[in-house]
From TrEMBL:
GO terms for biological process: methylation. GO terms for molecular function: nucleic acid binding; protein-glutamine N-methyltransferase activity. Its EC number is 2.1.1.298. This is 50S ribosomal protein L3 N(5)-glutamine methyltransferase. InterPro entries: DNA_methylase_N6_adenine_CS, HemK-like, Ribosome_uL3_MTase, SAM-dependent_MTases_sf, Small_mtfrase_dom. It comes from the Bacteria. It is an enzyme of class 2 (transferase). Coiled coil: none annotated.
Length: 300
């Protein structure tokens, strides 16, 4: 008997996958934080089932072809150490799905949660009092365009410019923009931060730039090392791009606008350099890794 003959239900495959992942010492963090959630996501997405809850399907008997496919994916996760979203070509932010492959970082920005929960708006902090009044949004380092797409949904009257340096990442972004039928509102631009914008101004700038130090990148586990290095590395203190964004953002914001930027664990390093009134925002899984600063408080 083989695993293909012994493991008949989704519950069997889930248990097997968790055991294999734990025994292999895999690293997580690309949408899940542990072996159980990683296994559940991988199996459900491969079966084209809703990824939010595996429980309704646990006792479902799988066809032989389905079992063979899932066993191959479990083995690939262990042997290649690629994040599960790369193996199934899809990642999610609060229920919204996006195409991904090795050309883009796996979407997992805390900014997505902040936008979708309305934290910036009147029911939250009141930083963006009227979502319908937001006319222009800029998404820097857009990658797969996930944040640009979320912003387009949250601010229904806004035109969204999404800038990305990597032409390969933009190819993936185009697929996602097309999937959400947002080609008339989300405009993808290739270039370095503000360079392709020709002085245009926005009501809101969102940015999830690279913010990892070179030393940390060198120590990455294989899962993180499989992502494009340019999506992570940002100099000795991890803030090279954040410094540039802060220096130029005011020139691209309308009066009353603001900058929402993710910096990971860079708060202490950032506040050691700038005497600015950052508002630090928490999410379900992060504390003070994203800041807001209004246009009038920015340098320049």
């Amino acid at each position: 008997m083989t695993a293909l003959d012994d493991l008949l239900t989704l519950r069997d495959l889930l248990r097997y996958a968790v055991s294999r992942f734990n025994a292999a010492g895999l690293s997580f963090g690309h949408g899940t934080t542990n072996a159980l959630d990683e296994a559940a996501f991988l199996l459900l997405e491969a079966l084209k089932l809703p990824v939010d809850d595996i429980n309704p399907w646990l006792d479902a008997h799988l066809t032989r072809d389905e079992r063979a496919c899932l066993l191959d994916l479990i083995e690939a996760r262990v042997t290649t150490r690629k994040p599960a979203p790369y193996l199934v070509g899809r990642a999610y932010i609060h229920g919204l799905g996006f195409r991904v492959d090795e050309r883009v970082i796996v979407p997992r920005s805390y900014i997505g949660e902040l936008l979708m929960r309305g934290v910036l708006e009147s029911e939250g902090l009141g930083l963006v009092p009227e979502p319908e009044a937001v006319g222009r949004v800029l998404d820097l380092c857009t990658g797969s365009a996930c944040l640009a797409i979320i912003a387009a949904g949250r601010f229904p009257n806004a035109e969204v410019d999404a800038v990305e340096l990597s032409p390969d990442a933009l190819d993936v972004a185009r697929l996602n923009v097309a999937d959400y039928d947002l080609g008339d509102r989300v405009h993808l631009l290739q270039g370095d931060l503000f360079a392709p914008l020709d002085g245009q101004r926005y009501d809101l700038i969102i940015a999830n730039p690279p913010y990892v130090t070179a030393e940390e990148v060198a120590a990455f586990p294989p899962e993180y090392a499989s992502e494009p290095q340019m999506a992570h590395i940002a100099g000795a203190d991890g803030l090279d791009l954040v410094h540039r964004i802060l220096a130029q953002a005011r020139n691209h914001l309308n009066p009353g606008g603001g900058l929402l930027c993710e910096v990971g664990t860079g708060r202490e390093a950032l506040e050691a350099v700038y005497d600015l009134p950052f508002t630090w925002l928490d999410t379900e899984e992060s504390e003070a890794e994203v800041f807001w600063i209004g246009e009038a408080d920015l340098p320049g």
